[in-house]
Amino acid sequence: MLSDGKGYCIRLQSWASFWRRLFVVWYPRLSSAYAVVALAYQVAFIFNRTRYYTPWLHLLGQEIQRLTPNDAVRTLAAAIAG
């Protein structure tokens, strides 16, 4: 243990304990909130309410486009034609 005789070790332990408690209390809440938001984005994407599949893609500005059967046939034909 680090100690300078002035309670440094005690303060370090109390800070570590504080951050550990903060993490244990808030991580499940934040993780659940993100999962709910991600689910909402995915459902909205399915029903054409948003152009973004996840919140991260929204932050990055990356759009996901659906591949229709006609698009698949054209892509495959172009790949075969070389």
Compact description:
The protein is mainly alpha-helical.
Write the layout of secondary structure elements.
Elements: H1 8-46, H2 55-60, H3 69-81
Number of strands: 0
What is the 3D form? elongated
Q: Oligomeric form of this entry?
A: single chain
Q: Largest sheet at a glance?
A: none
Poorly predicted ranges: none
List keywords for this structure.
single chain, 3 helices, mainly alpha, 82 residues, 71% helix
Task: Walk me through the structure.
With 82 residues, the chain is an all-alpha fold. It has one domain (8-81). It is built from three helices and no strands. The chain has helices spanning 8-46, 55-60, 69-81. The longest helix has 39 residues, at 8-46. The protein is elongated, with a radius of gyration of 25 Å. The model has no long low-confidence stretch (mean pLDDT 87).
